[in-house]
Amino acid sequence: MPAQSKPQYITDDQGNRVSVVLPVDQYQELLDDLEDLATVAERRDEETVSHNQVIKELKADGKL
C-alpha cells in the first residue's frame, strides 16, 4: 500500500464535515476492499473444501 496522505475534508457553513477528498488510488483500494468484504459476506454459508480436495480436483481436471 502506498504512503497514505492525510485526508482533506470539505465542511459546511457550521464546520461539519460533509465530504472527504482522497487520492484516486486510495479511493480505489477502499472500493476493492469493500467488494472483497461483500464477496466474503455472500459466501459465508458456503460449504468449505479442504486443501487436499482442491489439489485432487485440480489434478483430475488437468490443471495441476
Describe the structure.
With 64 residues, the chain is an alpha+beta fold. The protein has helices at 24-42, 51-60, and strands spanning 8-11, 17-21. The protein has a two-stranded antiparallel ribbon. A hairpin with a 5-residue loop joins strand 1 and strand 2. It is elongated.
Topology:
Layout: E1 8-11, E2 17-21, H1 24-42, H2 51-60
Antiparallel strand pairs: 1-2
The neighbouring-strand order within the major sheet is 1-2
Rg computed from alpha carbons, rounded to a whole number of angstroms: 21 Å
Domain module tally? 1
Calculate the mean pLDDT score and round it.
Answer: 93
Query: Helix-strand pattern, N to C?
Result: EEHH
Class from helix and strand fractions:
alpha+beta
Give a short summary of the structure:
The chain is an alpha+beta fold.
How would you describe this structure in keywords?
64 residues, alpha+beta, 2 strands
